[in-house]
Amino acid sequence: MNLFKKFLAGAAYGAGFTVACIVALSIWANFWLKDGVISSSSQSTNPSISSAPEIVEEFLGTTGCSSGHFDYESPKDLVEGSGEITGRAFVNGKGVAGLRLKLMLNGTVYSAWGESDSEGVYTIAVPYGEYRVNGYSLDSSSAARVLAGKIQSPDQNCSGGRIYVADGQPGHGLDFKFVDPVALVEPRGELSIGNPIFAKWEPYPGAHSYRIQVYKSLERSGWRGNDRLFKWDDRPIVTSEEFEITGITNGLEVDHWYTIEIEALDQEGIAIASTASPRNHRDFRAIE
Question: Rounded to whole angstroms, how far apart are CA atoms 58 and 27?
Fold first, then answer.
């Protein structure tokens, strides 16, 4: 009888220990899951947890540009007034809504924000007077939203001439033009200079020919720099969507990184688009 009582007591203790372990494990798991600490290699049955990061397409151009002299050290904000400066924002020739921007004026002041409407027209309130546009600044959040995957058109101006704003006479500011970039397909990764290396890209609508530039860098990240393989007037122009990089006169160097720039040209030889140039991007590395 005493043995039977000991057995029951042991069983009860074991069951209690098991339940305690289950509760403890449950609390541990909930804590780590809630804080997102479990690694992506863990096998989870929760479909809301994904090991793949979300890929967000971004605006591939620049959010600011200026020319001439502008006081970046102590710029001022221009008060709004009864006058207006207007302009338009286009994507592939069509007006784009929702782009917020401000203009740099008279070398010292930023205008108030303006936002493009459904026709791409933006309006900025300013006092009556005379202005000169020195540059512009785009709101990065709105640019990421409405200009994802786009770049500035090659003929986008940073500045404009003098404009006059009076009662019933708005001034015309800058027009903004954004386009799809030329899509480079090859080269990618580490490539041996002992083999032919080709730059290949997708055909661009309206392109009659393409102009090539190659940038060299010792660094994998950062700005691509100005170490160009071709002088400005010696950039090759081809009519196909292919160019052999290893065939260039001054060749490639081992352990250097290279960025390919392709400009799409119309029938008159005017640039209509180019490849995008993100700051930390390199297309390939030359190896033995």
Answer: 39
Decide which of 111, 144, 179 is a domain's last residue.
Answer: 179
CA-closest candidate to residue 286, choices 246, 244, 248, 253: 253
Can you name the residues that pair with 172 across neighbouring β-strands? 86
Instruction: Please choose, from the candidates 158, 154, 118, 119, the residue with its C-alpha nearest in 3D space to the C-alpha of residue 138.
Output: 158
Residue 79: HSE in the Cβ half-sphere, 13 Å Cα cutoff? 4
Q: Which of 55, 75, 101 corresponds to the end of one domain?
A: 55
- Domain extent, residue 94, equals 64-179
- Report CA Rg, the chain: 30
Distance CA 184, CA 273 (A): 12
- CATH number for the domain harbouring residue 229: 2.60.40
| Tens of each residue's pLDDT in the chain, 288 residues | 443 344 334 444 444 434 333 333 343 334 333 333 322 333 333 333 233 333 347 999 999 999 878 888 889 999 999 999 999 999 999 999 999 999 999 999 999 999 999 999 999 999 999 999 999 999 999 999 999 999 999 999 999 989 999 999 999 999 999 999 999 999 999 999 999 999 999 999 999 999 999 999 998 887 777 899 999 999 999 999 999 998 876 689 999 999 999 999 999 999 999 999 876 789 999 999
Q: Are residues 72 and 174 in the same domain?
A: yes
Q: Specify whether the CB–CB gap between 78 and 114 falls below 8 A.
A: no
Pairwise CA distance, residues 185 & 241, whole Å: 10
Tell me: do 74 and 50 sit in the same domain: no
Report the candidate in 249, 253, 251, 258 with the shortest Cα–Cα distance to residue 277: 258
Does residue 188 share a domain with residue 89? no
Which residues fall within 8 angstroms of residue 14, CB to CB, at 6 or more apart?
none
